[in-house]
Amino acid sequence: MPRYFFDIVDGEDLPDRHGSVFPDLAAARVEAIRYSAEVLKEMPERFWNCEQWTMTVSDANRVPLFTLKFLAEPSPPHRIAE
What we know:
The protein is of the alpha+beta class. It has helices spanning 25-42, 44-48, and strands spanning 3-9, 13-14, 20-21, 53-58, 64-70. It is elongated.
């Protein structure tokens, strides 16, 4: 089974040094969503304290396959009609 690496950048690089084995790319995509949700749930303050949070999933040769990007942007101020 192929090995995939899930590297996170959230103001600092958090490389996946060991990777994880999944049957195929579809399973790695599902894991990327699950793992992202877990990390964001466990460390929400890190998300709000960085400009952008990304997870790049690479194959066993460290060739990037896809990147998930999470970004919070404040809404423009609401104007009250006079």
